[in-house]
């Protein structure tokens, strides 16, 4: 059995519903959201709600970008699986995301 890995990169400017719809259509395991303009407290919950409405709570949402530490609890409470702010080492983030995927399929 061969496992296939692929990454889908989409337009930067999408509505939360569009991002969720594309994640579902592409049957992704993880949906990454980059927030550079302080929209994370509005847009991230909307994406998670859109995924819930499509019965895809199994898609893990991770967030990266310029996110104040004080907003981490809010995002975690919304259902975010990982938050990667400025200075996050790519190798560390990759390991954490892979571990989340492994744990979700055990």
Can you lay out the helices and strands and say which pair or pack?
Blueprint: H1 16-25, E1 30-35, H2 40-53, E2 60-65, H3 72-78, E3 82-84, H4 90-104
Parallel strand pairs: 1-2, 2-3
Structure report:
By secondary structure, the chain is an alpha/beta fold. Helix content is 43%, strand content 14%. The protein contains four helices and three strands. The chain has a three-stranded parallel sheet with strand order 1-2-3, sandwiched between helices. Strand 1, helix 2 (40-53) and strand 2 form a beta-alpha-beta unit. It is globular. The two termini are 17 Å apart. The mean pLDDT is 87.
Sequence of secondary-structure elements: HEHEHEH
Rounded to an integer in angstroms, the radius of gyration calculated over CA atoms is 13 Å
In the sheet with the most strands, the strands line up as 1-2-3
Distance between the termini: 17 Å
Q: Classify the helix fraction into a percent range.
A: 40-55%
Backbone structural class: alpha/beta
Query: What can be said about the biggest beta sheet?
Result: 3 strands, parallel
The tally of beta strands, per DSSP, is: 3
Mean residue pLDDT: 87
Give the amount of beta strand, in percent. Answer: 5-15%
Task: Outline the low-pLDDT stretches.
Answer: none
